[in-house]
Amino acid sequence: MSLEKIISASHKEIAGSRTKNRLTVQISYAMQLIMDFYSTEFLVMMDYIEDVSIICNPTNPSEIHLYQVKTKSPDKQYSFTTIIKDKWYQELYNNAKKYQGFIRSAAVVCNTDVVHNNKNVFPNAKTRLDEKSIQKNIKKIQEAIAKDQKIKEEEVDLSKFYFIRSSLSTKGHKEEVEHEFEDFLLTKDPELQVATVKSIYNLLYDGLDEKFNNEIDENCTDLKEIFNQKGINSRDIKDVISCGLAIQIPTLDKLFSDFNITSVLERKKYAMQYRQIKMDMYSDMMVFVETKKIVLKLIEEVNQSGIDDMPEILLSVHEQVTKNNLISAVYAEEYYLKILIMILIYRYCYGGEIK
Asked: Global pTM?
């Protein structure tokens, strides 16, 4: 059976068994995973199968990563006895076996150490459970899983199971990840504005929060609906980031200079719409995504057709957009649309398209 069919077929069981463990640290960890998996095609799922799950190649699901997130006050630790008694790995193993053949990794993520006899059980930031140096303790996990599954101990394969020591704190995790996200975006645009980071970050964070809280009818077997309600596709994530970076606003003086805007009356009209664009993009950046795609495609086509002068590109793109009604009327006001096109031409010229 394909991974797609397994996910669809198991929804009723998942919907009935998942309990709401409302921890926003799960959202912060999902943001870290977005950065880790950014170069690939993936879907991040919230509170479905596990606290956080990553589906690889969501158009044709091929592999899955499972993450069970645990937290504790930073001045405390979990005892090894507790994690066995509370069935951390027994439950993770039980979930993972349903996707046997498609599991790439299954991990417990915890923001504190796990100790036994005053020693750290998992020595690394990411410890695979079949590492030879920790087998004395791992044998106890194998025994617990074997008992829970009613199988022989030697049948318990932990080669794809991990313990991940998270650095996130219980109270400041959202701000900590925002700082990491800023560093991540700075690798794509060294001149990034703080307001742009906050806008992109909050939009993605709120989107993950919404997916976490969404509930699906337990009889639903439509994979597209399940993915739509509980996950965010990497294409959409990259669109939001790309849009935010491409929309990052140069100063009016730079725009007026590059596009030869000398009329005082026109400058005042552009300045008014410039302020409106800044308010729009920081309140709801998603509305720019499709418009930005259309405009950037036209800018590239016009430039490649032989028009190489910035003011001429502006006139040509504006004419095509308005003549063919390519964008929503919300953005069609002359000076709003023109200043938006100028911003995107500027980014196309000086920064290029951000992938």
From this structure: 0.77
